[in-house]
């Protein structure tokens, strides 16, 4: 199911719903091409943020680091760092960045843990790689719950 109401009783932010719809509109290898497009759109880290100060996500097959700034729970700022030679991981990070950055902590916590299944990437990306996407969201949520 696509759109803001993925499953009964749960909603995803509008930006993430739009991404889910984009993936629903393409089939097969076009899903992989779309993921690679997202990988090229991951913004660089701001100058004041160093990768060494970020949380690693060891569940990802490629190096990935994230930062969750929830100093304003109404406007959570997410940053991700992953090398260009890891396009799948960068693509996942970019999906989360574009879909969740700037949202409220409550909206992010309401995103279903398995929302990525609606992207239809299981046919073109290994389950191990998909677990990396799940781990990113889990770590973001864990951080938000710890500071709530």
From TrEMBL:
Protein origin, superkingdom: Bacteria
Q: Where is each Fe-S metabolism associated domain found?
A: 21-142
A single Pfam family it belongs to is SufE
The record's section on InterPro entries has:
Fe-S_metab-assoc_dom
Transmembrane parts of this sequence: none
Q: Which family does it belong to?
A: Belongs to the SufE family.
Q: What is this protein called?
A: SufE family protein
